């Protein structure tokens, strides 16, 4: 993989920043330690970083947010010119800047820059920070909404550019890039929320609705969505034993890597989701209970009694945690693969590392006994829910 380099025995993900966006991004190269000495594992860990960096480069090329900031500085300067001669001189300098941008970035970006600088156009992020501060949702939902609206701001630097026709073309571009109906629908929902905020502050017309009626209703799929089946208790035990034998590295004397086994055990005895376990903090765990406060929905917030079978494990994790998260000895969590999940990382991060870790297990231990598909973590945690239902309805 061309975006990998090895330093002192550790693999790094790297990506050279193109010269045309180095000033915007403020660097010539992206570099991230992957924390592993194994090339195959490094390739898996590097992929999301490379994709994120490339998205930043695309955003820097297609967005005038940085240009808008510069244009606003010009606007402020022109409005505070001490006299007419200074005003005229600054306007001449502005014309030179606009001509330079037209040569480098094209007439569209130059026109947007001039419009913002002279006050005829409004930056699309004019109320973005205020809108963010007023979102009263659980952190995961808020973070996703913010990311969705950031896509809008990157695509449309000015509010005047956000029209129904342009939004329709934007949706077509996203679908061509591989985004499905669910993703585009979620992005539009977040954008509508931001637009309603702008209407509340009379930044845009209350009659405008650029995000309404821009998608074509799609027929419902007649195929039943595949579900993850619950493992039996015997199968969970087999999987846990196989994970317990996994070592950190390939050396004969390599120490055991207990994180995957610990995670399987906690999931089996609590029924918690993988991201719920990896985002637990010390203050959410007592000697007798675990409080889930970062669930997928508010209905999932709950207190789980600690089973005697995992009490010693939970006690050990609490004693060895060094950063406030109830995790094994590493900084980033129960599931942290080297260089992977940050503390309290999102479900995509922990899910990716679950795939990396489970990939070291022998395939027979990964197959669901019902559908013969490679298991998801929910196959393990669902065992807990199944047993609970059987107790309530023998």
Could you give a quick summary of the protein structure above?
With 394 residues, this protein is mostly helical. 51% of the residues lie in helices and 6% in strands. It has a three-stranded antiparallel β-sheet with strand order 1-2-3, with helices on one face.
Distance between the termini: 54 Å
What oligomeric state is this?
single chain
Low-confidence stretches: 326-351, 362-367
Kindly name the structural category: mainly alpha
Helix content, binned percent = 40-55%
Strand content: 5-15%
Q: Could you tell me the radius of gyration in angstroms?
A: 26 Å
Largest sheet descriptor = 3 strands, antiparallel
What does the average pLDDT come to?
A: 76
What coarse outline follows from CA principal-axis ratios?
Answer: elongated
Succession of helices and strands: EEHEHHHHHHHHHHHEEHHH
Count of individual helical segments = 15
Number of strands: 5
Q: Main sheet: which strands, in order across?
A: 1-2-3
């Amino acid at each position: 993989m061309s975006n990998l380099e090895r330093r002192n025995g550790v693999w790094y993900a790297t990506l050279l920043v193109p010269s045309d966006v180095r000033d915007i991004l403020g660097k010539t190269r992206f570099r991230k330690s992957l924390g592993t000495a194994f090339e195959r594992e490094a390739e898996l860990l590097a992929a999301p970083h490379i994709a994120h960096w490339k998205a930043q480069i695309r955003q820097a090329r297609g967005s005038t947010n940085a240009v808008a900031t510069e244009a606003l500085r010009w606007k402020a300067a022109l409005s505070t010119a001490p006299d007419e001669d200074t005003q005229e001189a600054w306007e001449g300098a502005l014309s030179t800047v606009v001509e330079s941008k037209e040569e480098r970035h094209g007439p569209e970006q130059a026109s947007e820059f001039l419009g913002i600088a002279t006050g005829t156009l409004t930056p699309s992020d004019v109320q973005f920070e205020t809108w963010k501060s007023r979102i009263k949702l659980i952190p995961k939902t808020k973070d996703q909404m913010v990311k969705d609206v950031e896509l809008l701001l990157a695509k449309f630097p000015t509010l005047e550019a956000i029209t129904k026709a342009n939004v329709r073309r934007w949706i077509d571009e996203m679908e061509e890039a591989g985004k499905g109906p669910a993703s585009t629908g979620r992005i539009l929902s977040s954008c509508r929320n931001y637009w309603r905020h702008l209407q509340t502050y009379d930044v845009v017309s209350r009659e405008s609705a650029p995000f309404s009626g821009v998608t074509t209703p799609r027929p419902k799929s007649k195929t039943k969505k595949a579900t993850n089946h619950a493992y039996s208790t015997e199968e969970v035990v087999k999987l846990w034993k196989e994970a317990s034998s996994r070592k950190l590295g390939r050396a004969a004397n390599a120490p055991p890597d207990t994180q995957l086994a610990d995670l399987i055990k906690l999931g089996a005895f609590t029924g918690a989701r993988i991201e719920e376990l990896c985002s637990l903090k010390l203050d959410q765990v007592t000697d007798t209970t675990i409080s889930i406060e970062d669930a997928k929905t508010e209905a999932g917030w709950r207190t789980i009694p600690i089973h005697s079978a995992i009490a010693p494990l939970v006690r050990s994790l609490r004693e060895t945690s060094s950063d406030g998260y109830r995790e094994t000895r590493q900084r980033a969590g129960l599931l942290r693969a080297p260089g992977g999940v940050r503390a309290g990382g999102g479900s995509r991060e922990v899910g990716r590392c679950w795939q990396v870790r489970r990939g070291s297990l022998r395939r027979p231990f990964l197959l669901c006994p019902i559908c013969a598909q490679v298991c998801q973590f929910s196959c393990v945690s669902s065992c807990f829910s199944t047993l609970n239902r059987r107790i309530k309805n023998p």
